[in-house]
Backbone:
């Protein structure tokens, strides 16, 4: 999962470079930050000994993915990327979001089992 998040970063950087400069530059900065945040939070979460901390980082990663998807939609509405490119990036986000959600459910279940012991 982390590797998919890392693979997404250069794709987002490429889109961000094409955004107009000036007042719209913040959109590109936010896109880059959100993309990096996904990978960072997956890695940070895996390093946590407490499952609740891991769950918190997984939640942050999913939130960053949602933010990234929203920013890409905005960039698409500004015609800074094609509809095809937007669909491809949204597919990559969905393919990352689903396993993150499943991992969250697994960790939550395991945490509940450990708490009941």
Residues:
């Amino acid at each position: 999962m982390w590797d998919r998040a890392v693979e997404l970063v250069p794709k987002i950087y490429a889109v961000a470079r094409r955004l107009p400069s000036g007042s719209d530059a913040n959109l590109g900065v936010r896109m880059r930050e959100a993309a990096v945040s996904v990978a960072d939070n997956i890695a940070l979460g895996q390093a946590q000994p407490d499952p609740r901390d891991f769950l918190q980082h997984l939640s942050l990663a999913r939130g960053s993915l949602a933010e990234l998807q929203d920013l890409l939609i905005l960039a698409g509405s500004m015609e800074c990327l094609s509809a095809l490119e937007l669909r491809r990036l949204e597919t990559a986000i969905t393919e990352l979001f689903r396993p993150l959600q499943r991992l969250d459910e697994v960790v939550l279940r395991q945490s509940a089992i450990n708490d009941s012991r």
